[in-house]
Design a protein that fits this description.
The protein folds into 3 domains: 70 residues, no CATH class; 82 residues, no CATH class; 50 residues, no CATH class. Helices cover 38% and strands 4% of the residues. It starts with a helix and ends with a helix. It is globular and about 60 Å long. It has a 3-stranded antiparallel β-sheet, with no helix packed on it. It is mainly alpha-helical and 271 residues long. It has 10 helices and 3 strands, in the order αααβββααααααα.
C-alpha cells in the first residue's frame, strides 16, 4: 500500500499516532527488517529511538529486492568526482555504475528569484526552509499576481493540484485572497509552530492533509464534516476515516465520482 494512502486521513489528526512510542511500535510491526539493525541493509536502517533521525518511510515494489541483489547500491556519502564508467566517493572509493540518483534533500530557496523581480521581503522574518514566508505555501503577501506551486514539503499531487486550481481562481478574479495582514498573521503562526529541524512534523499525518484542507477551504471545496456526520454517515466515514486522495476535493461537484473512488480505497485497504 502506498504510504501516503495509509497515513493521510482525517481520523489520524488527533490520534495516538502523534505519540512517539505508538509510532515506534507501529513502524516496528510494519517494517521489521528496516528497523532492525541486524536484519537491515546498513544504508536502509532506521533507528526509531534516535531523536535526530526523522521517521520517513517510502514503499516500493522492487527497491529492497534490487538492493539485496546489489542492482541498487544505497550509499550515504558525497561524490568527489564523476568518471567515465562510475563515480569516486569522498573517501576515494570507486564505484562502477550505470546511473546515479543523487539525493540532495529539500533546501529550496525562493529569495534569489524574489530579488530578480525586485520584490521587498524584508518585512517578514525567515526562520526556516519549509514555509518560505508564503501564505499557505502558495502566495507571497506582497505579490498578488504570482503563485508558487509544489514547493511545500509533502504537498504531493493532490495538494499541487489544489494550489494550481486556487491560483487560477485568484488570477481570474473568481475568488479573492485575504488581506496582506491576514496572510502575514498566518505565516507568523506557522513559523512559531514549525521546527525546521524535524520534517516529521509534516509526517505521517497532520501537515500535508491540514494544508490541503486549508487550501480547499479557500475555494469552498469540502463539506461541513459535523453536518455530514449526521446527514450522510456513509460519506462521512469514507471522507474522514479512509485515506485522503484528490477526488475527495470533488465531493461537492461530483459526489458520485468521489464516493466511487473512496469505496475502492476502502476495499483496497481491507485487501
Amino acid at each position: 500500500m502506498p504510504w501516503d494512502l495509509f497515513y493521510f486521513r482525517r481520523a489520524f489528526k488527533n490520534s495516538m499516532l502523534k505519540n512517539k512510542q505508538t509510532q515506534i511500535e507501529m513502524y516496528s510491526n510494519l517494517f521489521p527488517k528496516q528497523t532492525n539493525r541486524a536484519l537491515s541493509h546498513p544504508a536502509l536502517f532506521y533507528d526509531l529511538y534516535d531523536e535526530n533521525q526523522p521517521i520517513q518511510i517510502a514503499l516500493s515494489n522492487n527497491y529492497k529486492k534490487f538492493v539485496k541483489e546489489e542492482k541498487i547500491l544505497p550509499i550515504r556519502s558525497t561524490i568527489k568526482r564523476f568518471e567515465k564508467n562510475g563515480i569516486v566517493l569522498s573517501d576515494d572509493t570507486f564505484l562502477e555504475c550505470d546511473a546515479v540518483i543523487y539525493c540532495t534533500g529539500y533546501n529550496k530557496n525562493i529569495y534569489k528569484f524574489l530579488q530578480l523581480i525586485q520584490v521587498k521581503y524584508d518585512s517578514l522574518s525567515f526562520k526556516n526552509k519549509i514555509n518560505y514566508n508564503l501564505y499557505k505555501w502558495t502566495f507571497h503577501p506582497d505579490i498578488m499576481n504570482l503563485a508558487f506551486v509544489g514547493l511545500a514539503t509533502g504537498l504531493l499531487f493532490a495538494g499541487i493540484e489544489l494550489q494550481a486550481k486556487w491560483a487560477t481562481m485568484v488570477f481570474s478574479g473568481k475568488i479573492m485572497l485575504p488581506s496582506r495582514l491576514e496572510m502575514i498573521k498566518y505565516i507568523n503562526k506557522v513559523e512559531e509552530e514549525t521546527n525546521p529541524l524535524h520534517l516529521t512534523l509534516f509526517y505521517p499525518n497532520g501537515g500535508h492533509l491540514e494544508l490541503c484542507d486549508s487550501i480547499a477551504a479557500e475555494m469552498d471545496l469540502l463539506p461541513n464534516f459535523d453536518e455530514l456526520k449526521i446527514s450522510d454517515p456513509h460519506s462521512y466515514d469514507l471522507l474522514w476515516n479512509y485515506a485522503m486522495c484528490a477526488p475527495q476535493y470533488l465531493f461537492k461537484e461530483d459526489k458520485e465520482f468521489t464516493l466511487k473512488i473512496m469505496n475502492q480505497i476502502k476495499a483496497f485497504e481491507k485487501f
